[in-house]
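User: My instructor asked us to take a sequence, write out its structure as tokens, and then describe one feature of it. I'm not sure where to start. Here is the sequence I was given:
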Amino acid sequence: MRIRRILAAVVATAALAGLGLAGAATATATTQGAPSVVSPSQCREGGGVPRIDLPGNPCVGGTYDGQEVD
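Assistant: Let's start with the prediction itself. The structure tokens for your sequence are:
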């Protein structure tokens, strides 16, 4: 019986820790969301290159990689 209680406590602790990590990952992903459209200067400041010659006018590389350049 003692082993069952210990095992149940370990499983419950692991489950709660997993939920905490999942919540932290979701919060991080939400707070780091980049704007959907950036200016050419924002693209350059973020370390990218505005490629207005490509379809969709993407910012290539850097912080805003893949975002549309307006």
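For the description part of your assignment, you could build on this observation: The chain has a mean pLDDT of 79. Try explaining in your own words what that tells you about the chain.
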